[in-house]
Amino acid sequence: MGRLYEVARSVRHMERCLRLEPCRRPILSSLQRLHRLILTKRASTMPTTLPLFPLNTVLFPGMPLPLRVFEERYLRMLEAHRDADPIFGVVLIKSGRESGSIPEVYLTGTAVSLASDRHRMSKRGNIVVTGGSRFRIHDLDWSREYGLASIEYVNEPAPDPSEIEGVLHETKDLLRRYVRGITRLTGRRFDHVRLPVDPVACSWELAARLPLHSRERQSLLEQPLTADRLKALRYTLRRELALLYGAGAAGLAMNHPGGSFTLN
What CATH number matches the domain at 49-155, 3.40.50.970, 2.60.40.1090, 3.10.450.50, 2.30.130.40? Predict the structure, then answer.
């Protein structure tokens, strides 16, 4: 497990470097496929129980999330599982609050790993995690005050290129049009949107960048196939473009969602 973790980190680092060099996209695509294979292998050896961190947000695979943890029960959870990978699972709250209660949660979530040195953690509970494999909850035990779930990991099959090529191209084009519209409407400049070559990673990046309600983000997380997720994103972007050009109304979540702390 530890060796697979280090290999996965190295592959992610190479991906980030190669994204800056378009001429090396074939190499990048191969690395991203390798990363998915590593994640699948890790999923087959990962534990079937996972502590949960319920939030009022949805975390997608591959996306970073800064967290400020202050509740004693979750600080105990981090200490008890600090050497585990994944360290916990992020799930969206269906009803209840992030702190001071036992909330009802959605049954599909995202397992996370510490994005920095996995053996070090801020004593004040300031950490950064990265989304990994999705999971479904079968049973949930709150006897430790934090939730400990019996889970099943979701292994997404590789998409058929002939099935997704058209919808992937159209969805990327819709996003570019949306960014141009937001820029004209607000006068705000956005970083150039670099999307992954790999269609699975691209679908999660697109989902993370759009200004969606948490329930809509949860619906995207629960989509079993990349093709279905891309079709849902295409529909959403068409709707947002209609709102943007018809009523001048739009959200601004175009930069990376990990730019601000979530208070828990």
Answer: 2.30.130.40
